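Researcher: Quick sanity check before group meeting.
Model: Go ahead. Protein one:
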Amino acid sequence: MSLNNITPPDVRSIVTPVLSSLPGASVSTEPSSNVLPLLAPILRQRVQVLSAASQEPWIRLLTYDTAKVPRLTSIAQSGVLDPHPVSGEIEMDWDYNVEIKYKRVDEETLQTLVVLGEMDLFVRLVYCTGDGENGGQGWRVGEVGVASDPSPLASYGGFSTLDEAQKAFGASKQAAGRHLNVGVTRAPAAAVEEEDDDDDDYWARYDATPARTPANNRSPAPQPMTKASQPEIERSQSAEDAYFSQYDSVQPAMDPHDPDEEMEHVNVPPPLGMGRVGGSADSMDQSQNETSGVWTLAVPPKSPSSRSIRSQEDEERTQNLVHPRPESSASSNGSVMVAKLEESAERKEQSEFGVKQHISRSIRSLYLLTRASGIDREEFERMVRTELDVLGMVEDEI
């Protein structure tokens, strides 16, 4: 439904029942069933849901400024809202002590601010078109708050009549459209260049990222003391196989057995002309005696045949100690999983950064639009906070 042909609200018939309920709301935890239909759907849901989950008086839920709750409670309990003993109504001069301002916020929001200066209260009315519980459309109470320190009229603005508010909104809408068109067709070169620079800086972050992760650093494990000479074999491997192959020749730091150290111990020759103590000359020509560590005069070899037998035994022992380590199939599978996880994390980080950039620019664009429409910053911030509060209440239904 269009908001262009709306009649002004009957302020007295809407506001009076709400004011009469404030003294009871300052001490009761259950909202009055007679007042709930007069509230806007958003405020009505706020009062119903939050009052059921708390043991505090529900008057605090009528205002969005939590700092003013003590003052609002004090006014409700001061007696100024007590009905007259004869007429049964609140004593109020609706013609002289009440200020009314009208404001068209956007295409879907039409408000009326009623300031009761004598009582230090204000009531904000909102025209609702989707109130299915109470006739579908009409003026409803959107907030009840304290009117002083500071006065809501100072930041609210508004107009004395509803027609003036409608005309002002139409004029600001046309001006905003012309401003946006001019901004699109004749954008300053400096602004365009600055936006391009921001985009370049954003993508430059990824250009500076190393293409390989993690870096190819030397392992902290002890390096082998000696290496068996093997022919160099050139192999064509993928980047992942090349990464894990660098650990094939590394001795684990927690492994107490090192074949290279054992080979060094086996192959250390005795001093010239010396040998180990160990019974007969035959036993000295075999593997060095493990029960004695004393050097003595070496016994000359008996014959070339004994030397050949000893050389053959040493060669077999060496082959048994130094053996190639097979590649693990788990390394290749693990490398593929690591690469996939890193790629997924990088995509998630890029997506989150892009979403944050989009939200930031959207908020700035909305703020520029509100300024062009004549809405000040305080009103813009209040609208954003209101929407966030509503989102918190209906988050499970989205």
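Researcher: Fine. The other one?
Model: Protein two, sequence then structure:
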Amino acid sequence: MSISLRRGLTATFSAMLIAASPVAIQAVSLSTASADTVSVYTAPSSLAGDNGDVIKSVASNYNGAEATQIQYLSRDNKNKQVAVSGTVLVPNNPWDGPGERPIVAYAPFTFGMGPECAPSKTLAGEGAGDLVSGFQGSFIDTLLGAGFAVAQTDYIGPWVEGSGEHPYVNRLSEAHTVLDVIRAAQRLPDTGLPSNGPVGIAGYSEGGSAAASAAELASTYAPELDVKGVYSGAPPADKSVLASSLDGGMYVAFLGYALIGINAAYPEANMMDLANETGAELFLEARQTCTLDAILRFPFQQSRSWTESGQPVASFLSQPPFDAIVAENKIGNLKPSMPVMVQHSPVDDVIPAAVGKRMAKDWCGKGANVQWQELTSVVPFFSHALGMLTAPSDATAWLKRAFNDQAGDGNCGQF
């Protein structure tokens, strides 16, 4: 990609977002943790304890909230225990709803693969935050503004030493890390948060699939949690569709991220054996990028240029052993036990709206309480990113209703 084209795309993308919402890219200030040497990104030599136990915590400050960076225990897709980082934020404003202050697990949208991309770092003004990372703060600020405490996970990734590559959009590991960050928030001392109070889950894009996966697994993986509602925005619920829809487009980097994720979660599949020199180089480069850098570095590439055989990635994902991996990561096969809202822009330019709608319909077919709603889209380009401008307020309003036991009966059969 030429430097001039990259600069042009950066300017266009930035102008679109700034014009649409200045608050979306405002500086988010979580100050450097403390003067001691504790780091939640350095894992202990051995792990022991229960899922959701807090390994380390470091107090920090955040505008309008008391924040604590944490390292906690969770499980990967093979049920192996792993250390995960994140942030717990308790707003200074009181909770004026019924009962105890709720905790909302915030599942971040795509932030990248590099060690410096973790949301708990970029929220702290550390790491390698980019334009896109500002949206994470906007979503969290909206939740905090409603009086919710927020438990934000970084998912599994190289930001914590020894935790391996980020298993991007992996259904099991991301569900586990989302549910366990709620447990960690409930167990974190001196926060004033209830240990068994009401909780919710919210996420968009990658976070939408993580939230949806957590909705499916909550009743079996974390049955003690009182999950009142889950918001899933623009979820990439079916990776087989995305392998084709992303290929050759502006956001083909996300397909590269997905392949790195498969390689991390399923090393036995020998994903790298399929790559040619170009593909191997892309793997090495992409795993060090944050979102915007990846989008601008790899746009419009055809995945057949990455493979030794010259076949597109989609053709491999329909064959063993990858077909079983894709099937294991499809969302919509298990009934959520709580009310769920699913939103998607009808002109989403990254994740086709049919993917989110299909997941919602699959849940409806299993008798779940599902509220489907189309996200407002002002333009048919950059619509996935621009959907993040209204998703936080929509998610927050719906979770308020859920915490008031007013989520309703959904609208299955009407979409």
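Researcher: One line on it for the slide.
Model: Residues 102 and 319 are 44 Å apart (CA to CA).
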